[in-house]
Amino acid sequence: MLATAILDPDAADATAIAHRLDFTDHAAEVPTHVHRKAQLILASHGAVTCIAADDVWIVPPGCGIWIPGGVPHSARATANARVDYLFVEPGASRLPDHCCALELTAMIRAMIDRLAHEPSDYSPDGHAARLARVMLDELAEMPRRRLNLPVSGDSRIRAIADALTAAPSDRSTLASWAIRVAMSERSLARLMLRETGLTFGRWRQQLHLVVALRELASGASVQQVAAELGYDSVNAFITMFRKALGTTPAQYFVQRRA
């Protein structure tokens, strides 16, 4: 069953409503859709990959992706994912009007879990409404994390992104990719920087990080992920991961579970 068939968030008048899905019981892929309410997607187990605002976002455990209302988005969950959705009325939160990744405290996750047990038509003067207000205030204070891969709407960059997502071990140079998309190397370098804000090397490293977080959260070993991404050694992969996130893969997921 599609997750979007479970709940129509725009049918509820409450300031914020929450819903939990276990993707062992639902289709792993949620097709592109849009709703009036803003949405926070967070994973308590496994991971979710979202496409929104021309970016690919990864939602590992302990983090959430904020998607403002009116932004078309799709999602794909790992088979072991347990996901919470928080839907928020426009203007009810101080969170930004653009997509962003948030590091979430245990308190925030517990408050969302508590709200998920409330009916969507809870009283605006009751306990659930007070909980929602405090939760939204706390959410606005959460630190941002770079958990996205900028792709842009340019067909050539999207073609490279699709190819590298399907075969992330591909180590073709920028010059090789320029030939594939019928551009000069210099023109592709300028296009990549203009459209994504990153050089090709930094952009491919960010793609590797997004793929790595998804695969590690799904249960793959560090050795398996390093091989899938084409690293010469496990240590080289761990070095990349530590530079990006400040810790090793093992420590990262221990911290997320804690």
From TrEMBL:
Pfam families: AraC_binding, HTH_18. Keywords: Activator, DNA-binding, Transcription, Transcription regulation. The keyword Transcription regulation applies. Residues 158-255 form the HTH araC/xylS-type domain. Signal peptide: none annotated. It comes from the Bacteria. InterPro entries: AraC-bd, Homeodomain-like_sf, HTH_AraC, RmlC-like_jellyroll, RmlC_Cupin_sf, Tscrpt_reg_AraC-type_HTH. This is AraC-like DNA-binding protein/mannose-6-phosphate isomerase-like protein (Cupin superfamily).
